[in-house]
Amino acid sequence: MAADDDALYVLTAVLLTPAQFPSVLGDDYPEACARLRLEPYAEGYGLVLGQDGEGARWTVATDDVTLVACAVAAWDCGMEYDLSPSESSVAAVLPGWPLALAVAAPGVPAPHDPEPDSQQEGGHDVLVPPDTEQWGPAQRRLGADEIALQWAAWREQVDDEVEFVEAGEQPNESVKRVLDEVRAYLHDPPPPGRIRSAFASGDARTLRADGPGWSMVARTDDIAFLLLDEEPGEVLPVGRGSELPQLLEALDEVALRPAA
After folding, report:
1. Is the Cβ–Cβ distance between 22 and 98 less than 8 Å?
2. Rounded to an integer, what distance in angstroms lies between the CA atom of residue 81 and that of residue 168?
3. Three-state DSSP class for 209?
4. Which segments carry the region annotation Disordered (predicted)?
5. Complete edge-to-edge strand list for the sheet that includes strand 214-219
6. Most exposed of 1, 38, 115, 152 (fewest Cβ within 10 Å)?
7. What are the Cα distances from residue 175, in Å, to 16, 45, 57, 137, 195?
């Protein structure tokens, strides 16, 4: 499935849909697709990451989203699943990986970028994971991903008396600007994927909103966290106060949700 027709040894796969995509690629679904030079079709794609027989890294985009979703669900349950997209479903074959992987295919050379003469015609840049030693939009979104995954650990670090920034207050102009932009999404819908809702414990939902220079992670029954490009490595908590519950409820109503 690689450019030289060698077999692709599949290591992992992720979904690239309006409601669920690797946020490292962009603030929304169209931006993530543009990063991979894919059309932002509503049905989305599956991204299959693997190595060819020489160990080179390749990312295969397939429009067989159901196949990839089934594989990911099986792997999450500890089950085996042979993920082999048909050639007719392949939308693009891209050199490199957009995500950092700690695994490699057995019996082949260590993961490395494909040689220039084996890459597709069309001049695709080699995909590389973001440098975690730097701070920027990709790292900010990765930070938000980590908070969503480790919510309980981050929540324990925050005092329950953190106050929500009311519309008329300006104790932290960066925080106020972001919250104003979040509210604006309710009246002027952003590109697909800017607001996403995922399952959380109980009846709660985990909300994720992104925008120019900022990311927000929140739980509908709790507080929110903000990360800003202009505040490297900082995580700003926003308490529930009198306004946040209604804002989160309204966001959840317009957020995209992964297919069940």
Report:
1. yes
2. 54
3. strand
4. 105-126
5. 195-199, 205-211, 214-219, 224-228, 236-238
6. 152
7. 30, 34, 40, 17, 18
Query: Is there a contact between 127 and 59 (Cβ–Cβ < 8 Å)?
Result: yes
CB-based contacts of 93: which residues, under 8 Å, 6+ apart?
1, 2, 3, 58, 59, 60, 61, 120
Does pTM surpass 0.70?
A: yes
In the block, residue with structure tokens 């049905």: 43
User: Could you tell me which residues come within 8 angstroms of residue 3 by beta carbon, excluding any fewer than 6 positions away?
Assistant: 58, 93, 95, 114, 118, 119, 120
Q: What CA–CA distance (Å, rounded) separates 89 from 3?
A: 15
**Residue 46 parent element (H or E):** strand 45-51
- pLDDT tens for residues 105-159? 999 999 999 987 655 545 678 999 999 889 999 999 999 999 999 999 999 988 7
Six-digit token string for 178: 């972001």
- With H, G, I as helix, E, B as strand and everything else as coil, classify residue 35: helix
